[in-house]
Amino acid sequence: MVNNYSTLIDSKTCRKNIFTAGSKVLEATAVGDVNISIEYGDVLLQNVLYVRNLNVNLLSTNSFTDEGAQVTLDQSGGQIHLANGTSLKISKNSECGLLEFKGDTWQESAMTASTQPFEGIDEEFELTEKKPETSTQQLWHEHLGHPGRDKARAIIKKLGNKLMTEVDPDTALTCKQCIQSKSTVAQMGQGSRERAATHLDLVHIDLILDTSYVTEHTCILVLVDDHSKYVYVQPLLWKSQAFVQLKKVVSFLETQTGRRLKVIQSDKGGKWENNEARTWSQDKGIEWQKTVDTIVSRTDGWKE
C-alpha cells in the first residue's frame, strides 16, 4: 500500500477497506502497479493499493507468500525472496522499531506537473464520469419493453404516425441488453463417470481468486456435493483462510446430513498442499483426490 497516488502505474479506481492492528479502518481508493528501483535493478509490484491517510508505505507479507514468495524475518531484519528470483532486503529501523524496505519508487516528473492522470475523477477519486447519450430510438425501445423487430413493426403499424420515427425496428439488433439476453453459454462436457451414490461420498472444492478489488474479499471458497449438486459458496478476506473455512463447512455438512465425508476432489493448487491439510484428511479418513489438468473439463468441468 502506498500513500502517494503518483507512484501508481496503470491505476484504476476501487473501494476497499483496510483494517489496521489498532482496529482503525482505512479506505483504499485506487489500485495499480508500482516500480521500485533497488541495487540490482527494478522490481514491479502489482495490485498495489492507494490509501490516502496512510502514514508510511506498507508491504504485505501475506500477499507476497500468496504469490509464491518466501519471507524470512528476525529481530535484525529479513529478506523477501520473490518467485522470479529477486531478493528484497529488509532492515530494522531502531528509532520506530519497524522493519523497513529501502528502495526508490518510480516518480514521473511530467505527471506531477501535468493534469490528473484520470479524467472525470476528482481529488477524492470519486467517479464523476459523464454518462453516454442514449438515442431517442433506444429510449423508446427500452420503454416499450425491448420488443423484437416484428413486434416493433406491429407497434408502428398500430400507432400510425403518432410516434413517427422514434421507434426503429432495427434497434433490437444493436441493443446490448437484447443481445446479452439472447446469448447462450457453451456447456462443458459432462464426462463419462457416474454420479456419487449418496451425500458426502464425493465433494468438489475450488478457490476462486478475485483481483477486481470491488469488495474487501479477495477470494471465494466453493464446495459442490457430487450427488445432490448442493453448492456452498463462502467469500474470504484472505487466501490463507480457505483451509480453516473448509474444515468448518465439512463439519457443518456432516452434522446436517449425519454422514461422514469420504472423498474430496480439488485441483493441484498449492493452497491445499500443506501438512495441516494432509494430517486433517488422514485423521478423518478422507481421501483427497487431485484432478489431472488434461481431464479437468471432463471430470469436474461443471464445477470449474
Automatic annotation (TrEMBL):
InterPro entries: Integrase_cat-core (IPR001584), PolX-like_BBD (IPR054722), Retrotran_Ty1/copia-like (IPR039537), RNaseH-like_sf (IPR012337), RNaseH_sf (IPR036397). The lineage of its organism: Eukaryota, Fungi, Dikarya, Basidiomycota, Ustilaginomycotina. The aspartyl protease (PR) mediates the proteolytic cleavages of the Gag and Gag-Pol polyproteins after assembly of the VLP. Residues 195-304 form the Integrase catalytic domain. This is Related to retrotransposon protein. It comes from the Eukaryota. Keywords: ATP-binding, DNA integration, DNA recombination, DNA-directed DNA polymerase, Endonuclease, Hydrolase, Magnesium, Metal-binding, Nuclease, Nucleotide-binding, Nucleotidyltransferase, Protease, RNA-binding, RNA-directed DNA polymerase, Transferase, Transposition, Viral release from host cell, Virion maturation. GO terms for molecular function: ATP binding; DNA-directed DNA polymerase activity; endonuclease activity; metal ion binding; peptidase activity; RNA binding; RNA-directed DNA polymerase activity. GO terms for biological process: DNA integration; DNA recombination; proteolysis; transposition. Coiled coil: none annotated. It catalyses: DNA(n) + a 2'-deoxyribonucleoside 5'-triphosphate = DNA(n+1) + diphosphate. SUPFAM superfamilies: Ribonuclease H-like. The keyword Acetylation does not apply. Pfam families: Pol_BBD. One of its GO terms (cellular component) is nucleus.
